[in-house]
Amino acid sequence: MVDASLSRQPAAAGYADHARGVLVLGLPLIGSHLAQMALQVTDAVMLGWYSVEALAAGVLGSTIFFTFFVMGAGFAWAVMPLVAHAAAAGDEVALRRATRMGMWLSVVFALAVAPVMWASAPILRALGQEAGLAALTQDYLRIAGLGMGPALLVMVLKSHLAALERTQAVLWITVAAALLNVGVNWVFIFGNLGAPEMGVRGAAIASVAVAAASLVALGLYAARAPGLRGHALFVRLWRPDWSAMGRVFRLGWPIGLTNLAESGLFTASSLMVGWIGTRELAAHGIALQVASVLFMVHMGLSNAATVRAGRAEGARDRLALWRGAVVVTVLSAGFALATVVVLLTVPGPLVGLFLGPDEPDRAAVIAIGAGLLAVAALFQLVDALQVVVLGLLRGVQDTRVPMILAAVSYWLVGVPLSWVIAFPLGMGAPGIWLGMAAGLALAAATMSVRFWRRFAGQG
Questions:
Q1: Of 103, 275, 284, 299, which residue has the fewest beta carbons closer than 10 angstroms?
Q2: Where are the domains of the chain?
Q3: Burial of 374 by CB count in 10 Å (0-12 exposed, 13-18 middle, 19+ buried)?
């Protein structure tokens, strides 16, 4: 049975009630996203302490992996509003069917992209990357690609549990995964405990091991936890459910392409910075990691917005949708303003955390990275707004128009502006970041207009 608390909506809940609800749901999600991000940050830190070349290959390889991953995660993210809507309606069958078919679609996607990661070096050389960097990045992707399927299945189960407000389990399993990643990295990157010294390939091995362990832990919890066992989530998992698969696919593919448009913006930025030089790419990767850690707070709030908007939509409560949207937007904006202060006051020490004390290029990389973090202060404001409004739109199951708005904003505005400001106008890597910020700002503005006028305009 679906928990009764999942289908109840407080009558005429005030803003304080909505703030409490968003934080109760969102704080564990923020924590789990930060723990997930810690996987990438520890990879970057430990590879940076190994060598700048390994860090550059790790940055490029993880960026490419993440680009594919967020596209495939569209099906996992589609599970969240569908399960939230079904939970609000008390429909346990729809809840189970959506999650199962999200798993099916995730596995199919992982198999489809595997050949691209296996043969990535020629593609990277064609895109202007140095031959040595392309080969080292391919070494990373050939191993990391084995973890694509488990990583996407982990996302499906996290979405399922988040929609059922089982966020504490998601948090602690992700924290355990982050700690495991540090240990496996230490063994295989540097060759400790008798293991071979594998550098960037060791980081890839750690990523696969962590994804597999996380999948086992989340699967056991979803199957055996009190209140969830009756869902029988994995019983007859092999049997296709074409109707439910169609619903997940129709909602998920625009989410995946929206994710691709945004992550592709960052991939394009990494490729363009790679044209400038290895030190610039290393600094770009560090700055991107710092900005991404801060962004995880907004991602957690966005997920909470999706769940609560899905519940309000399932209960046909327009007032709850309006008030919840106001609250989550204000919370996200407040945190974004606080991060501006951090990025403008201590950029050098933040960049220095990612580099070994004896690294010959340490001073140059810190100088470049500090300049990028100054631009990231502006970047945070618009990035926060666009991800929160995307979460609200997904909660009301509006995904196709936001996909178009994202593609136009990121690729017809963001990428061309990045190139123009960086190269013809001569601003280099900071110019690339300014162009990205412009694309994100346009996406935030257009999506906000759509949500507030079309879905919450009668709040």
A1: 275
A2: 28-455
A3: middle
